[in-house]
Fold each of these.
Amino acid sequence: MRSALLVLAQFASIAVLLLGGGWQLPWWAWGFFALGLVVLAWAAVSLGGNNLTYMPDPRQGNTLSQRGIYRFIRHPMYAAVLLCGVAVSFGAPSTWRWVALGVCAVVLVIKVHHEEMLLTAKHPDYPQRMKGVARLVPFIW
């Protein structure tokens, strides 16, 4: 139930980020948005088919990915969402977008902790294997 609520909150905030303002973005905002899409695509390819899911709960038979972008970031898809959200919120700001970006960031941090708890329960070596790998922002967190 908690996983479903987190996913619902995440997708609702993404919808507001996308629909809560105009799309006349400056070049640098388009650059951040494009970087977010590249990170998202790289993460999907690096993760592999059996691991890919929109829910934070690990799929049956999943494996821990440590290849591609997962060597540097534990949750690159969440980082991609935040990159795209920052791009539209700063590039074409609106009150709705600022609120949605804040909500999205809080939801994703909670989702990171929830997902890591589930991964640790399924893969007890997860914390050890993830040492030195940032959660969302390389060299920061």
Note: The CA atoms of residues 42 and 115 lie 20 Å apart.
Amino acid sequence: MRSYVRKEFASKVRWSTIPFKIGLGGRLYEIEEACALNCAIDGLGFDIEAHPVENIGTDEQGQRIDAIIGAMGMEKWSLIPDPSTGSIDLTALRKRKFIEF
């Protein structure tokens, strides 16, 4: 649901949040802040709110994960994952057409 980013990539625009605990990368974190984060996929920029952590973990190939875009960020920018291919539908992000409720 939430987005996370390694602290070294987190922006300096931060604010305090209501603390909560989360398990990531085999470690338990107490989250107390969030940050604004500018991201890009295939050169298409967007922004999300993310929670800075020391380490998120590694992927199936053993590469370090720098960020996780949670469901709220995916929904905000209409990023639609396709589990069968491991890709993300970027149609709405390319067109920059979004529906606000």
Note: The radius of gyration is 14 Å.
